[in-house]
Amino acid sequence: MKKPYLAVSLLFFSSVGFAVNAQQHVHGQGELLVSQEGSMLHLQLVLPAADALGFEHEPETTEQLSSQNLLAERFTLNTNVIDVEGKCELVGVEHTLEAHDDHHKSDHEDAHEAHSGDHDEAHESEHALHKEHDEHEGHEEEKHQNIEVEYQFHCDDAVSGITVTLFESMPSLSAIQAQWITERGQGLSELSARQPTLRW
Ligand SMILES: [Zn+2]
Questions:
Q1: pLDDT-derived band of residue 81, with 50, 70 and 90 as boundaries?
Q2: CA of residue 172 to ligand 1 center, whole Å
Q3: How far apart, in whole angstroms, are the C-alpha atoms of residue 92 and residue 10?
Q4: What distance in angstroms lies between residue 86's CA and the mean position of ligand 1's atoms?
Q5: Looking at CB atoms within 10 Å, which of 20, 88, 166, 181 has the fewest?
Q6: How remote is the CA of residue 54 from the centroid of ligand 1, in Å?
Q7: How many CB atoms lie within 10 A of CB 167?
Q8: What mean pLDDT is predicted for residues 94-116?
Q9: Alpha-carbon Rg of the chain, whole angstroms?
Q10: How far is the CA of 146 from the centre of ligand 1 (A)?
Q11: Average pLDDT, the chain
Q12: Greatest Cα-to-Cα distance within the chain, rounded to the nearest angstrom
């Protein structure tokens, strides 16, 4: 019998005792929350944009826009992100990069670049960025961005492990602090390129 996602999320948040906004933003450090209830497996990954993308602002060049789109596609398809052991089907994906894709400014900039280069626009956005920094002096954290990805899997078998496969493509990501919670218990583990597998 399938349980609704909401039940899984509620169990997860109330049991683990912290929500997304409790996270820290440390470059090179990601977070992974794993919760399993019955046949549903919920994964929530938080990465500093600096490691995932190489920049922490709206894409300003076509190159940045295309890396962001590529990463968004990878997250959506779960291509080299997280391997789940067992017979599991990916039934739900959410990631914060989607919102950026819909940003009207991106289309606008693309159109401009195609016609007459992007020098003026680049300068303009550079100025806008500086201005913003001046106005928000003393609020360093506003310059940082996290990327969040959430996966819902429906599993026929009991799952007892996952492997994070994104370290290769994000060399500056040195570790992911992983927390897991299942009906059998909960635990913490640090994952890295050398130790990318979490077992419970
Ligand atoms: Zn940052």
A1: very high
A2: 12
A3: 16
A4: 35
A5: 20
A6: 10
A7: 21
A8: 55
A9: 19
A10: 7
A11: 78
A12: 60
d(CA 122, CA 133) in angstroms, rounded, equals 16
Q: Which of 1-15, 71-85, 138-152 has the lowest mean pLDDT?
A: 1-15
What's the pLDDT at 130? 52
Confirm if 82 and 165 have CB atoms less than 8 A apart. yes
How far away, in angstroms, is 199 Cα from ligand 1 center? 29
- 3-class SS at 64? helix
Q: 30 CA to middle of ligand 1, Å?
A: 11
User: Edge to edge, what strands does the sheet with 197-199 contain?
Assistant: 82-84, 161-164, 197-199
Cα 51 to averaged position of ligand 1 atoms, centre (Å):
8
pTM of the model: 0.70
Distance (angstroms) between ligand 1 centre and the Cα of 26 equals: 7
Bridging pattern class, strands 161-164 and 82-84: antiparallel
Q: How far apart are CA 13 and CA 155, in angstroms?
A: 21
Structure confidence at residue 24 (pLDDT) = 76
Q: How far is the CA of 87 from the centre of ligand 1 (A)?
A: 36
Pair of tokens at residue 195:
């130790």
The Cα 151–Cα 115 span in angstroms is 39
24 CA to centre of ligand 1 in angstroms? 10
